[in-house]
Specification:
The complex is a heterodimer of chains A (294) and B (136). Chain A is an alpha/beta fold and 294 residues long. Chain A contains eight helices and five strands, in the order H-H-H-E-H-E-H-H-E-E-H-E-H. In chain A, helix 1 (4-41) packs antiparallel against helix 8, helix 2 crosses helix 7 and helix 4 runs parallel beside helix 5. In chain B, strands 1, 2, 3, 4, 5, 6, 7 and 8 form an eight-stranded mixed beta sheet that branches. In chain B, a hairpin with a 2-residue loop joins strand 5 and strand 6. Classes of the chains: A alpha/beta (294), B alpha+beta (136).
Chain lengths: 294, 136
């Protein structure tokens, strides 16, 4: 059995761990609120952009020469996966869920005979994937998951993807990110960005038949400028959701850790007290048997 | 009858209110959104969006390019970046202009798409500086 001194030391160390995890939980809760506000603030732009794309796609329906971003390259041989993870750990299953999902997707696509390329965003994903698929990684983006998360982070990433597409490096691009359900649950979700599935266009159509739109300079040019921007906006939305999810996951994980630490302290204290009492009893017995012997 | 104008940047909504007219910098010339305007979608260059109530300009915003979507009752401006004119920092804009000019000098003069992109950015920053200068 552990000595009293050892027990005291362990109780002390678990107590300080508990202090740290409970502080981290508070911090995560505050950051979560800010991240959620940011994600909400970015909503209107995405909505307006989708509406405009829907109108444009409706106006251009039946015309040839749709840009690659919308229609794809025509093939689906080379897949580019963009898993979005956080730069920092201690967030429960947040990053490992994404990593596992990415790994499964890579294996599945490879089994189908496709070529897979990876562009991980966030240090945790990049490190994990580099261990197993280092030859598949074309590029990595690290250090954008901070509290600021400016739009330029998403637009740089978008530009990178577009230039890879223009260079004929891939046919299909899919982002894998943690969708923010609520504080407790983040769901790893694949979202195909290229070619763009314009399901939303159909939904926007009733609005479009009200009056014929005029376009300046023309539909084609507008579409060519809107699509890369749309890609950036979708990436930004995914990154914001992931950032909010990270804080949510960390908050939950740290809440659990704090509770576990509390339980561990209770258990250790009980052992400590029992041991202490046993020691006292032992000493008393020794004194009494000593007195009897005299 | 007013028209509902929204200026939205990727990060947040800057303006959402009713005005009588909004003049914005279209890529092919300035254009005004007014009630009962025919539905229109256009590209914006870097420049100032002026919001009118009656005959007076109540607010001016600088937008660094983007898109606008106007209909008879509303006008949505999707700006790449947007700031109220009063908050423009001339110093930071001048610094960016210098950076871009250097990039222009260093750029490969046969790469037309890159040159076009740079030129659009340079003009946008110039417009920003101009918009930020105090009125004389």
């Amino acid at each position: 059995m552990a000595s009293l001194k050892e027990l005291r030391a362990r109780i002390g160390s678990v107590k300080s761990t508990k202090k740290i995890t409970s502080a981290m939980k508070m911090v995560a809760a505050a950051k979560l609120r800010r991240a959620q506000q940011k994600a909400e603030a970015a909503g209107p732009y995405a909505v307006a952009m989708r509406r405009m794309l829907g109108e444009l796609a409706a106006a251009m329906a039946g015309q040839d020469g749709a840009p690659k971003l919308l229609a794809g390259t025509g093939g689906d041989r080379v897949h580019l996966l963009v898993p979005i993870t956080s730069d920092r750990g201690l967030a429960g299953g947040f990053n490992s869920n994404i990593n596992r999902r990415t790994r499964q997707t890579v294996r599945k696509l490879q089994a189908e005979g496709k070529i897979v390329k990876l562009l991980p965003v966030g240090r945790k994903g990049a490190d994990y994937l580099a261990r197993e698929f280092s030859d598949l990684i074309v590029d990595r983006v690290i250090g954008v998951g901070g509290k600021e998360l400016p739009f330029s982070a998403a637009s740089d990433l978008g530009d990178k993807i577009v230039s890879l597409l223009d260079a004929g490096e891939f046919d299909v691009c899919t982002v894998i990110y943690n969708q923010f359900r609520n504080v407790m649950s983040q769901v790893p979700t694949p979202l195909q960005l290229i070619p763009l599935g314009l399901d939303d266009a159909a939904a926007a159509e009733p609005d479009a038949n009200a009056a014929q739109y005029e376009f300046e300079p023309d539909e084609q040019t507008l579409l060519e400028r809107l699509l890369p921007r749309n890609l950036q906006v979708q990436l930004y939305a995914a990154m914001l959701e992931s950032a909010a999810g990270e804080q949510g996951a960390r908050m939950t994980a740290m809440d659990n850790a704090t509770r576990n630490a509390g339980k561990a302290i209770d258990r250790l204290s009980q052992t400590y007290n029992r041991t202490r009492q046993a020691n006292i009893t032992n000493e008393l017995i020794e004194i009494m048997s000593g007195a009897q012997a005299v | 009858m007013p028209i509902k104008v929204e200026i939205i940047s990727p990060e947040k909504v800057l303006v959402s209110r009713d005005v009588d007219m909004a003049v914005m910098p279209g890529e092919e010339g300035d254009i005004a959104a007014m009630p009962e305007h025919a539905p229109m979608m256009l590209l914006l260059r870097g420049g100032t969006v002026s919001l009118y109530e009656g005959e007076t300009v109540t607010d001016r915003y600088f937008v660094a390019g983007g898109f606008a979507d106007m209909t008879a009752t509303r006008c949505t401006i999707l700006a790449d970046q947007a700031v109220p004119v009063t908050e423009i920092s001339i110093d930071s804009a001048t610094a960016r202009l210098e950076e871009l000019t250097e990039a222009w000098d260093a750029a490969d003069k046969s790469d037309i798409t890159r040159l076009d992109g740079l030129m659009a950015k340079i003009q946008s920053v110039r417009a920003e500086i101009e918009a930020g200068l105090p009125p004389e």
